[in-house]
Amino acid sequence: MSPLICVRRRLGFNLFGLRSNLQIISESVHHHHLPLPPPLPPCHAVALLLQLVVFTTLTVAVTTCGSDPVNLVFNGGFENEPFSLSLLKPTQDIGFFFQIGAYIPAWRVTKNSVQVVSSQAFDPAIANTSYCVHLNTKGGAGAIQSSDLYTTRKQARYYLSLHFTGQPDGGPLYKAMQVTISEKGIISYTVRHRMFVAQSNPYPSRTPLLWMARQWAFLGTGKSMRLELESTTPGPVGILVDDIQVILDNMLDNGSFEVLTIDFESLTSSILQSPSTALKNWVVNSGSVKLLRGSRFQSSDNSSSVLDMNGNTGGSIITYFGTTPKSTYAILLDIATNPDIAETDKQGIPEQCSTKLEVTVKVQATGKTLLTDLVTSKRKKGLQSNVVKWETVELRFDAETYTNVTIQFASKVGGKLGPLLDNIAIFQQLTTLVSEPNNTAMSSFHRRPLWCTHAWIGVLLVLNL
Ligand SMILES: [Ca+2]
């Protein structure tokens, strides 16, 4: 397969509502079709329009970065709120219609009302965070819809995960909600992929709140998607949700260069001279590279480290990767020019206007080349240490009959300022999802241990819509 380079420009729109396959591992047993919203009175229509304007503005505001975020859900922990809550007022109802100062950034209420709940009322799922969302209010069951997710990579496996628990103050013994992920057209949904029903622990305790974690796998479609969480519990007390994530199933260990094999403090220099195994799962195998820690530059994934592929001069790093024969793999890497070049190159010398990185995949045993590609990233205007303007590049290779490959990234520019590299991910391109036990193969995905008080039964849903 010829290498395919795709510099991402997200927030894609699906004009024609193309059909696609989405396979979902789910324990879902009930399928509900979401009701359409009722016709709006004229005064409410204006209010809704205002809400949509705010929603759209926020959507644009959170998707200006050129690289894929690690979590495709914006404000998935509901920590970003435009209001503050207190012991005297620990909750805030968010209505279907626009309420000044009371909305959830990057989310929209699509049915009745929901409630933002502060840690003054209940402990959120994640320690030291401030908010979660209750999907019911006095008005009954509510629903929220995410802004556009960063577009999923086609044929890549993603995990949708969230924490939930029953609001313990009353309501039915079993509380339920429905989670839907769907492709989005310009005006309305084109394909609504079903959906997951999660039941809460029927015996939640107030202290501590018994949060549960669930996750589901689905295949990316290459199109913009949205999430919707709808309470299916009648009455004023339903499910609390928190920490919603959609994350690529990255098969590469330490692609963000965050883990070292040695104590960082023992490094006498940020320059890693070859041969060096200081970076876990990587070998610096020629020249030298520079490990920039502690937010020296803005990372592409809100992490601490980025790698300048030039230390004292151009360097290269290599890793070993196990493949499944007859499979195609995609390598995602985030690249940028070193912002310091902008400072030293006032005249815009052409040679320094772009940076070059060579990516090579070879069969480990024979050295046969499966992929070689020169990635070029043009220097952008306005670069600063905290404005790096990362972009994500996608390359693909076919494993053919081989099970072990080497993957090398090499600077192709001279000098002490080379291409910045961060957040490398590798995924296998899949056409179907293989049913797998829940909560396996996710060690690289979850930074926290998951736990669940229920035994769930996985059901593979293959939807050919
Ligand atoms: Ca990093």
From TrEMBL:
Pfam families: DUF642. InterPro entries: DGR2-like_dom. Residues 251-426 form the DUF642 domain. This is DUF642 domain-containing protein. It comes from Sphagnum troendelagicum.
